[in-house]
Amino acid sequence: MPFLDIDNVTKSYGNVEVLHRVDIGVEEGEFLVLVGPSGCGKSTLLNMIAGLENITGGTISIKDRVVNDVHPSKRNIAMVFQSYALYPNMTVGQNITFGMEMHGIPKPEREQKLAEVAKLLQIEQLLARKPGQLSGGQRQRVAMGRALVRDPDVFLFDEPLSNLDAKLRVDMRTEIKKLHQRLKSTIVYVTHDQIEALTLSTRIAVMNKGYVQQLGTPKEVYDTPANMFVASFMGSPSMNLLPATLREANGGLAAELTGAEGQQIMLNLSQNGPNLRSYLGKPVILGIRPEAITDADGVDRNAKNTQALRNMVHVTEPAGSDTFVETSLSGKACIARMRADVDVHAGQPFDFVVNMDKAVVFDPETEDRIVD
Amino acid sequence: MSGGAQDQAIRTGRVTRTFIYVVLIFFALFYLLPFFIMLINSIKPLPEITGGNMMALPTDPTIEPWKSAWSTAQIGVEATGLKPYFMNSILMVVPAVAISTILGALNGYILTKWRFRGDNLIFGLLLFSCFIPFQIVLIPMAMVLGKIGLAGSLTGLILVHVVYGIGFGTLYFRNYYAAFPTELVRAAMMDGAGFFRIFWRIMLPVSGPIAVVCIIWQFTNIWNDFLFGVSFGGLDAQPVTVALNNLVQSSTGVREYNVHFAAAILAALPTLLVYIVAGRYFVRGLMAGSVKG
Amino acid sequence: MARSDRAPQDMRTTLQNWLPKLVLSPSLAAMMVFVYGFIIYTIYLSFTNSKMLPSNEIIGLENYTRLFGLSAWTTALINLAIFASLYIVICIAIGLLLAIFLDQKIRGEGVLRPIYLYPMALSFIVTGTAWKWLLDPGIGLENTMHLWGWESFKFGWIKDRNYAIYTLVIAAVWQSSGFVMAMFLAGLRGIDNEMLKAAQIDGASNWNLYRRIVIPLLRPAFLSAFVILAHLAIKSYDLVIALTGGGPGRATELPATFMYSYTFTRNQMGVGAASAVIMLMGVAAVMVPYIYAEVKESR
User: Which residues form the ABC transmembrane type-1 domain (chain B) (predicted)?
Assistant: First the structure.
């Protein structure tokens, strides 16, 4: 049985079910990220793990103990809140030790733990200050300190970085990752930021409309999205989803698309399984990540199946390290991600190369990926 | 109220500005005049009032009217001055304010941080109870106070003021706590603090501003109350407002206007002092009384 | 893992779940008895034949029929209509004017604001005492004008049946208009300055700026002011007692004074109760939609 077991959990408010049969097992030391747009139910799920919201159906257990009816303070969990939730009237030190005080831990032990955590997070010089005197990043550290000092079974993070500015967010992201690698703690982390999800997690649960859309490693979620929602939600710019028709070509399968000037384009697929074959002659959605569309020099050396196509360039957006190029395929805008110094001009045709190893195909009706 | 950054946007000409100042000063005089007249006439001997101009400054100032108003003026049947009634008001106001504020704080805490089904209905009912015309409860209240033997007693008046003060107390604290991040309460809960511990350690330490507002509001309202005092104060527990009215309205003997004014100022003194010391909060309290900030 | 081994809720958790409701219950009980219970009882009384003491004899709507047949009650209602409408309109007009003027980066705002507001700290009894004297033609303003040489000046409203009601308006406006000013001022200070700049760049004159943009944005302040003033007007009792005592004659009788005198001095409890119910309905008509919106918004 997993360390933290979310078993068939549902949540309803009155007659409205907002979480539908969520089933996730988290092993000890895992870093699970719940990611999804706002209103997808990720925070509700986190609050249910914390014990801040009732569980309508199913069970949540931590270390083989069902905690459905256990008070939050007795679940041996710690939570870092989006607003940090630091007690404004207490000093940093008091904030961190408040929980231990409530649990009746004697003062010398509290002091010792506080010193350890303060050292770990490099906030020793802040202990006598009030939260109001701290910067955003410092508050973030104190909030983590408050969680760490509890030495809990599971850490819960509720969008902890969303109140920080862009640069600090990246720094703190790295720091959280380092902390996890060092302490090997079990973490459930909620965010709406897919980059945070990809960089931090050992596993991701992508959620939408109260359903877990896909549960997998960052690589699985990114390379083989379970459906079109996951495909477009994860990755920035998001995956190009192009209407195509499945054709037979050179003994394999190919997707037929229309170019910017109405020309027919055939892209040979790497997949050729019976499942996919049953779609022959039918419309499908071809999914290609922007970085899989490049110029001839930018092609991944390990790619086995690359296809060239000539198409009109609409816009180029140099972004420093990369250049984004917009063209159109089958009437949809299609973004390509290229080297910074590629020689490409808006309004002129360009020879694109597509790494078809990375292409995926979706059923336009169910929006699910067609598994080969 | 953060200073007039607005005025960078709105410019006015010299003539308009003069006009604005004239209007503002006119109204300042309008508001000051009655009090000013009360003040100067309260230190005039009676003949100087009846025979002279009320706007004239006293030629022969005296503090006799004040002494009389405080300790010897005839109020009702006895010549006690305002003093005993003033004491009644203090003995009534202090506990009534304390109890209604504490209950208001607890209620506000519960209605925002421990929400349950139907809590909004309860709040709505409490809110409406702030605004009822008290005439609607006058008759049964008189009967109940009579039945439980509290008619004409300070305890009875305290009870009445607490009961009808809970609504406003709750309103203030609820609106204040609503803006207080619930995440803090949740964090404290996960830290293992219980209902009272969270209130005591987390909520109360940050409740200073609203407590001041609430106390000032309740103090002003209860001190200034007349209807309950005249209805339930009997003879022994009359608050100062009722006594002042009796003094001013008494039809026997010579009307000692100077004493009346001194008494009126005395009766107004506590609330005026509160206003002068904590006017800022007073305004905030009035604003919160309008439900929306 | 079997579902059955779910741990029973521990004592502390159970207690914690009940504690909030437990602590709220005394207030709730007090409210239910002393506010809503009493309201229901007064409504009940209004249908009974109660005179000096409450009676259980139900006489239907007779008290209401009698009430509306009484000229004193009709007078009180008409007076309330005059008093309330003038009080509300004038308070809002003065309050808005002062707030807009004070908001023009006025030197001495810190001195003026408290002067406008302090009357709100006084009781209506004190206000009434002061104004009663000021308005008395024999010793007040009229006398002063005469002494200053303006012999023909006449201001005897307080002694005149037809005008006495307006003296109530003067004193009440004096007491409350500063508060309305504070509400509008807070509203004005809350308006986004950039929007005003944008409007000026669009070429709006000061007049148009206020008429078309600022005043419409003050809608919530207007609404709050109206609700507060309306319910104060309906409840007005102390001021009448202190200023005019309801006179001359019955010229300044309001529903609140009517209720008190019929219930406690004329021993017509049934009629008094009926008049209180009508007053409650008046307040409810103003407050209930407002409270409903307030509570709903805070969800």
Answer: 86-278
